[in-house]
Amino acid sequence: MESDNNTYWRTNLKVAAVLLVIWFIVSFGFGILLVEPLNRIAFFGFKLGFWWAQQGAIFVFVILIFVYAAIMKRIDKKFGVHEDEE
């Protein structure tokens, strides 16, 4: 039982860590570090770097929320800690 709990939390932390790395790359990497190269590309009439920092990152963040929920639902079922759906 203790081993299952540790495995569950280790899996949970791995998922969170991967998604946080993606979040960091999207927000800091594309929104700040790579903004100048991205600004050379036009996207719907805007510079891509500007658009990405203002809109694109938000889309990715929302997608990450749904991805986290879906992955955790699967992990919860695997370890028997899911909520019963009625």
Task: Give the gist of this structure.
The chain is built from three helices and two strands; from the N terminus they run H-H-E-E-H. With 86 residues, the chain is mainly alpha-helical.
Overall description:
- This protein is mainly α and 86 residues long.
- It has one domain.
- It contains 3 helices and 2 strands.
- Strands 1-2 form a two-stranded antiparallel sheet.
- β1 (42-43) and β2 form a beta hairpin.
- α1 (2-33) packs antiparallel against α3.
- It is elongated, with a radius of gyration of 18 Å.
- The mean pLDDT is 89.
The ordered H/E elements are HHEEH
* Derived structural class: mainly alpha
Q: Low-confidence parts lasting 5 or more residues at pLDDT below 50? A: none
Shape: elongated
User: What radius of gyration results from the CA coordinates?
Assistant: 18 Å
Number of helices: 3
Oligomeric status of the shown chains?
A: single chain
- Largest sheet geometry: 2 strands, antiparallel
Tell me the strand order in the biggest sheet: 1-2
- N-to-C terminal Cα separation, in Å? 27 Å
As for the number of domains, it is: 1
Number of strands: 2
Q: How much strand content do the residues show?
A: under 5%
Q: How helix-rich are the residues, as a percent range? A: over 70%
Mean pLDDT: 89
